[in-house]
Amino acid sequence: MNDYKIVIDAGHGGDDPGASGNGIIEKDLNLKISNYMYDRFRELGVPVKIIRSTDETISPTERVNRVLDAFGNSNDVVVISNHINAGGAEFSYHYKI
Ligand SMILES: [Zn+2]
């Protein structure tokens, strides 16, 4: 494996629930998936940081700052932003880095 560094972003959080349906709220599922991935990468010895590990409101600007603060802006940094879309339009922001 190359020396990649991983940044995991759990989409939405806090006041921003993301999509919801069938009793599932996107922010909660995103967080579960992200915490699982974070633990797994750590177990495997891969450098990894997570943008949020609790149900926390993060502005788009703050989210990007946290991504950039994790390992800097470099080609060996992989950012994984977890989202569970609703199958149609999603009425929330998404960003590209
Ligand atoms: Zn989403």
What can you see in these coordinates?
The protein is α/β, with parallel strands linked by helices. The protein has one domain (5-82): Zn-dependent exopeptidases (Aminopeptidase). The protein is 31% helix and 20% strand. The chain contains 2 helices and 5 strands. A 3-stranded parallel sheet has the order 4-1-5, sandwiched between helices. The longest helix is centred in the middle third of the chain and has 18 residues, at 26-43. It is globular, with a radius of gyration of 14 Å. The structure holds zinc ion. The site of zinc ion has 7 residues, from loops.
Poorly predicted segments: 90-97
Q: What general form does the structure show?
A: globular
Q: Indicate the multimeric state.
A: single chain
Bound molecules: zinc ion
- The third-level CATH topology is Aminopeptidase
Round the Cα radius of gyration to an integer and report it: 14 Å
User: Order of strands across the biggest sheet?
Assistant: 4-1-5
SSE string, helices as H and strands as E:
EEEHEHE
What's the architecture, going by CATH? 3-Layer(aba) Sandwich
Instruction: Count helical runs.
Output: 2
Quantity of strands, as a count: 5
Spatial separation of the terminal alpha carbons: 24 Å
Mean pLDDT: 89
Computed structural class = alpha/beta
- Count of the domains: 1
